[in-house]
Write a structure and sequence with these properties.
single chain, 40% helix, alpha/beta, 8-stranded mixed β-sheet, 4-stranded parallel β-sheet, 475 residues
Length: 475
């Protein structure tokens, strides 16, 4: 039954043990500060560098990013950043997001584990991406820019930034990875509804795009290529009035996404719970980094040293599990600065799998550093296994997940099955980052038995590794 309680929970659907199916925090419990995990890491991620190996300074990246975002990107010591009032007001439109207990899934698996998921799909963009999009568009408006540009894979980031840019009155160009542009036309339609210009990438509208098409006329695109096109477009806006905005990977984005973890932390605290395992899908690292941030802080400071963190990536684009920890370009056109991350090489061409948001050659420097230093695990899974888990979850929990989110669902099921065998009553938390209602071509392919799995060979990976740059004195 829906009810209001003394604790201020606005809506609860209770089970016999008193834990609600869905728990919504009060509006005044929405975070008013973002949490910067770097400030509490034993060693921060390696610094961003220019192609000559020089450590990047604010002046070096200011032509690409908004000034406020540059400051956030380079700050490894400030633990908390105030969320601007204009951003807070927009957060109130769709936040807090619910923390859900997966009772039906638990029963179906016969597990003693308690499974929770933070559901970020309750907004028009259908994903967690809006948390950073609102912040980035706000800063662009504050800087009085004429245009912002971006890339998008599955379309969730492009959709989110389109909404945010339209709200703040900023013009937006989106370069959408070509295979996703074709697979997910309705996400493109939403972007256009919010007045964004959407171009399939690689395109003939940029110098880098034309070069990519000349090299491979049938290219299905990649996030790395779309980033290159978006950066080029931003740098050519007259009077230096354009900036590029990124939906994942960089420190600034993980900072904004910390609202996911902070809300989850407070909600679990109200329930008297604490996760033994925290799971997130991993493409660039935004939702994963945001979800784990306050829990990882507890692991690092010794409050909860035994919590496990599991990143789940597609076997077709296995940067964390088969990549190299090295400095690499964030984009295929090699126009962006270098970041130290797990990478498959900026020239790696992923297969056109349906989890478009996870088809990126690298990984967040924060997530990469945590994995490299032994604080996080990573697994890679095939997309047919992922879709089987997605459909099982949808039938039981009534939410059709995005293919990206379904990677986390798959791993949560595996962990819960292990608890069923061992009898351990572990608490499992995973991120359900978005809905899959614009991914029906993918679900149709799976249901018809037409979906295939591609796992890159060592030879394919070596071709990508060959594009990792050599930096004298560094690597």
């Amino acid at each position: 039954m829906a009810q209001a309680t003394a604790s201020g929970v606005s809506e609860q659907y209770t089970q016999s043990d008193g834990v609600p199916y869905r728990l919504y925090l009060r509006q005044d419990q929405i975070p008013t500060q973002w949490y910067n995990l770097r400030a509490d890491m034993p060693e921060p991620p390696e610094p961003m560098r220019l192609p000559d190996g020089k450590v990047a300074e604010a002046a070096d990246i200011a032509p690409v990013f908004c000034d406020a975002l540059v400051a956030q990107e380079l700050d490894d010591t400030t633990a908390y950043f105030d969320i601007p009032e204009g951003v807070q007001e927009m957060y109130k439109v769709y936040r807090p997001s619910p923390l859900c207990r997966a009772y039906n899934l638990e029963r179906a698996l016969g597990t003693p584990a308690r499974i929770y998921y933070k559901f970020e799909g309750n907004n028009t963009s259908g994903s967690h991406k809006l948390n950073s999009a609102i912040a980035q568009a706000y800063y662009a408006k504050e800087q009085d820019l004429d245009k912002i540009t971006t890339e998008t894979g599955a379309g969730q980031w492009g959709t989110a930034l389109s909404e945010a840019a339209d709200h703040f009155g900023v013009d937006l160009d989106v370069f959408m990875v070509k295979c996703s542009y074709e697979q997910k036309p309705f996400r493109r339609s939403i972007m256009e509804t919010f007045n964004a210009t959407v171009t399939p990438s690689p395109s003939d509208t940029t110098e880098i795009g034309r070069k990519m098409l000349a090299d491979n006329p049938s290219s299905t695109g990649s996030l790395g290529t779309a980033i290159s096109e978006a950066v080029e477009r931003a740098l050519h806006v007259p009077e230096n009035k354009g900036r590029y905005q990124l939906g994942s990977v960089l420190n600034q984005v993980l900072l904004h996404q910390s609202v996911i973890g902070l809300e989850s932390y407070t909600a679990l605290e109200e329930l008297g719970e604490y996760p033994d395992i925290v799971i997130g899908c991993a493409g660039g690292g935004s939702n994963l980094g945001g979800l784990i941030s306050p829990f990882m802080r507890d692991k690092l400071n010794g409050t909860h040293p035994d919590t496990r963190f599991v990143a789940v990536e597609p076997a077709s684009c296995p940067s964390l599990t088969r990549g190299r920890y090295a400095y690499d370009f964030a984009d295929t056109g090699q126009t962006c600065p270098l970041v130290k991350m797990y990478t498959l090489g900026n020239g790696f061409q992923p297969s056109p799998d349906h989890a478009g948001g996870l088809r990126y050659h690298g990984m967040s420097p924060i997530v990469s550093k945590l994995k490299h230093d032994g604080y996080m695990e990573a697994v890679a899974v095939k997309q047919t296994d992922v879709f089987a888990a997605a459909e099982e979850f949808a039938r039981l929990e009534t939410i059709l997940p995005a293919p990206e989110s379904a990677h986390a669902i798959y791993q949560a099921i595996q962990e819960a099955k292990a608890c069923a065998e061992s009898g351990e009553e572990k608490v499992i938390l995973f991120g359900l980052t978005g809905t899959g209602y614009f991914d029906m071509y993918a679900y149709e392919a799976f249901n018809k038995g037409e979906m295939t799995d591609h796992v890159p060979t060592d030879e394919e990976l070596e071709a990508g590794f060959a594009t990792i740059p050599s930096i004298p004195g560094i690597q």
